[in-house]
Amino acid sequence: MRNESLNPKSSYLLEAALHVLHFESQVWIDTIAFWKDEIKFFDNLLKEKQSKEERSIEFKKMFDDLQSIHKQLFHYIEMDIIAHEKLLSEILKGKKSIGEAEYREKHRRLQSLMGAFANEFNTFKLTVFSAVKKTK
After folding, report:
1. Could you tell me if 77 and 121 are in contact, meaning their C-beta atoms sit under 8 angstroms apart?
2. How many CB atoms lie within 10 A of CB 110?
3. pTM score, two decimals?
4. For the chain, domain boundaries
């Protein structure tokens, strides 16, 4: 079995004009801004639900997971997307000699990373909601 993306949108976008890839990068940045707000919400929710005397193991694990997500989000994905956008700007201004094919490959990797992160974050959210429901 070949390991290919089953998302036809992904393949279509990678063949699109560079301005379309720029737009997708901007959507990613907006999505990350929304996720940052969600992280604040989950942080507050977990703090509210934790035991006053001692954190339960389950909530401690969720706090640790939240910190991991926060680190990945702020230090890796967002910075990579911003660097990707700067590279596109330099390409369009003729300052960088990187080819479109290489730029598109970098975009594909970011696209894959965003998809994987979205899946991981959704799994985290389901875990938090399930744990919070149990405490009611």
Report:
1. no
2. 19
3. 0.74
4. 17-48+56-134
